[in-house]
Design brief:
Largest interface: A-B, 29 and 31 residues
Radius of gyration of chain A: 18 Å
Number of strands of chain A: 0
Order of helices and strands of chain A: HHHHHHHHH
Helix content of chain A: over 70%
Largest sheet of chain A: none
Distance between the termini of chain A: 53 Å
Low-confidence stretches of chain A: 114-119
Oligomer: homotetramer
Number of helices of chain A: 9
Mean pLDDT of chain A: 90
Strand content of chain A: under 5%
Structural class of chain A: mainly alpha
Chain lengths: 191, 191, 191, 191
DNA sequence: TATGAATGAGTGTTCATTCAT
DNA sequence: GATGAATGAACACTCATTCAT
């Protein structure tokens, strides 16, 4: 099976764009068909077994792109607190570069929030952060704290920034990143 | 004359309960009718001009209750950092006492979030926090920071805790409150 | 039973105004209640047994007013062709003075057109004209023609003028009356 | 590719028939579904984006048919007054042949009349007549008159005849045509 | 790989009306 | 004379999906 069949990615991108500009609720097959200029919604259900699968494919695609941006930045850091900073900064940079993708991701995650499996992508992101906080404590770089809760706080703060940016495009993202880095660095550093 | 006509509050409460357990999407008039044991959905549209109004009434009710819980606690604090702590703790306590109401509020806010009513309740909550952070800086109790961004970070962290609690009822909310208080107090204190 | 109970006429006038500006379809009990500032639609169904009765009352009221305007003018004419001219002119004058009433009458008549009884008000107006054309022929003032068909042609032409005026308030009604008088006078005069 | 997809025209014809016999108001999707023997009303909204579009399609279809009947007859006439006669006669003939279509057209036009689309089909018909009266005056075949007003009077008279015929099927349409031709010919001829 | 056609369940909302004071 | 509450039927329309080529 080909992950990127041309048609598939065309549909996925159309859905992402519609979600970003009009929200998940508005991203019906009909609206996607229209936005992508497809002949019929049948083309969508031909390529995706269900709406959920399409939603999942969109999220996977976004995470793929975000990961390309963020992973090397995080890997390049040599300390846990440095990796936390890299995580926040590169995530905000991704938002600056692909605001539609970032907005769509938040929309999708809030839409599939409750029902999905524990191993959903959302948790993937938080698991990475949870490990980061756990490692920081083991390395003595961070004070004692609840890694999972801090992970969710970081993600929540970033996601909220994404939402605010979607409504206020004039937002200074560079400064926003600085503030968030400062906020969490102060919160975790020992003493 | 009673503002809350009995029927109205019955419907509002039914909607809150359905939203809390099944999500906003599932909270259709038909589902509310069923849950509240009403004779027809017409009863709902008789008391509320539109779904949006009902949603607004539900949110208002929740904010009313949350405010009853939180306001005296916040007012009792004598410092800005104390008020921040009281805000976080009393909000989490409200979540512990009325998890359905807390969950419903988050659901409703994310559902009506986009429509750009600047004066919406969501912003009201953030505005209160924004003032709190601004006052803290003026009083010299907090270091220099972006009040609005910190406000949204606090709300985002609490809202995320609400969501997590909804999925994991076993969560230790007392400890969760301690951690969040610590997180933000460290983040704001001078030096 | 009092024909004009104050409340009744208030409701009737509100309905006429709503019909004139928004059409019969839009003139629902709810819309009338709103326009008249009533507390509930129940007040309407209290005073009128059905929507049809209210519609009939409105039409009766309009015809009453139109008749006040037109009857003396028609009666004052001494010939059949003079009465035809008086009919047309005074009808157009009524339109100029009470455009909302004239528009509402046309709306109501087209709404209740098909179902109603033969003795409906619509026919009343045409019957009067039919007699006028019949008398004109008997008196030798008019050539041989189908009185009923000419009656309906006159009413149709005037009603259409009403509709056009409703859409084009700038219409010169005086000239319009002149033209219609000329049209039908030429059509009926002998030779 | 066929513009008229079979299903589409089946639905259009069903709607025309329902409108003719029961009025526009009664022509709901449910009633059409029933009359056409369709499996679901969804079939209607599948083929037509909205009720308005379906209404428009029905009107277009009727005008198409009426035009087939009337156009050659009008074109064959060599004088303006001859064309006026041909217009009236062929229109009444269309009424005699397809009473349901004629009735439906009048119903639809009165239903969509208000919404102020200047370029609506109604005006198209009147514009043709207006030109006819203007040409007649230029050619010296008709006396000086308000072409637009005469056009609306002709259409109003014919439409009223359609309505009357719908209620009184026994009406002698041949004689009706004779009378209307005479009426308007006398009204326009010079001297 | 593609597509037009079809579908049943569902949405919120509106309608005039009746019930019970 | 007046009124708030209640009601069931109907409305156009949207949903993701399946059928049949």
């Amino acid at each position: 099976m080909q992950v990127t069949s041309g048609r598939r990615s065309q549909i996925v991108e159309a859905m992402i764009e519609v979600i970003a500009s009009e929200g998940v609720r508005a991203a019906s097959f009909a609206r996607i068909r229209e936005h992508a200029g497809l002949s019929s919604t049948r083309l969508i259900s031909y390529h995706f077994d269900s709406r959920a699968e399409l939603l999942g494919a969109a999220l996977t695609r976004i995470i793929e792109l975000a990961s390309e941006r963020m992973s090397p930045r995080i890997a390049a850091a040599t300390t846990s607190r440095g990796r936390l900073e890299a995580y926040i900064r590169s995530n905000i940079e991704f938002l600056a570069e692909r605001p539609d993708y970032a907005v769509a991701a938040v929309e999708i995650l809030s839409a599939i929030g409750t029902p999905a499996d524990e191993d959903a992508a959302a948790d993937t992101a938080e698991q990475l952060l949870t490990r980061l906080f756990a490692d920081g404590q083991l390395a003595g770089e961070m004070r004692t704290l609840d890694a999972a809760l801090y992970a969710s706080a970081v993600r929540a703060a970033i996601d909220r920034a994404v939402t605010r940016f979607a409504r206020t495009p004039g937002l200074d993202l560079h400064r926003c990143a600085d503030e968030l880095v400062e906020l969490f660095d102060r919160a975790v550093r020992p003493e």
